[in-house]
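Lab notebook page, bench 4
Experiment: in silico fold of construct C2
Operator: M.H.
Input chain length: 257 residues
Purpose: comparison with the prior construct
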Amino acid sequence: SCFVVRRCQQRFRIAESGLSMGSSVESFISALDYDDTLNIASEERTQSLNLIIDSKKEVDVTNILKSTSSNKQRGNNNNAVSVRNPGLWESMQPVAAGNWKVIYAPHMSTIVSLAGGGDLDVQYLLNDDGTLQSHAKFTNFPWMIPGSPKTLYLSVSGTFQSESDIACKVQWDKAWIRVIDNNDDETKDEPHARFEDVPDSFLKNIIASVGNSFFVEAVSVFPISFLSDDLIVFDFELLGTRICAAKIKPQSKKFSW
């Protein structure tokens, strides 16, 4: 079945990345349906994610990088290995750059359910210089624009930096959208990479203005519970939940949907 195929693919990618097959990280990934897009939240999956945090072993970021380059196992005795002091710039910067996708976030799957069901795919592009872009892809939602099937991209950009030894601060500065007609084969199905790429219009200015009203301090600081070169778990304290993202393309500025 497709489910069995996905499981085999997951285990192969985990083994290829060097994660211990007996680690709490592997147990969590194995509990998911997908390892590269948002999964439906459940109590079992939340407990499995919390086990990563509770059982983690913290090491210096240089040890994480050495382990990655030599493709050694980074977990043993069910302990997942995380960067020590993940909120410090010198700890996060060496492993941050790349293409990350949210694979587990209970509040996001709740939003999907409340919106009547659909597909939500969230991607972060983090750069070495501390800049980032976030793109959320909405498809198959019943409330979306009437007519032919549409895909909506909601994008924001900003910077990330150290807030403390355990937390990072994200400062958003611009917001934009893109609507794709799924029946239009001539249009590439991806978001505008930058705010500057969006054609000038009254709607562009409205979206930017509305987006700026949501860029508040209460949703800018995120404690980091776990950080490795291919997995991050950070706390969304405003809603009392956690977000887990997996790196799918190191050092990549290209989209991957």
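Observations: Residues 1-7, 17-22, 71-78 have pLDDT under 50 and may be disordered. The two ends are 23 Å apart (CA to CA).
Next step: discuss at group meeting.
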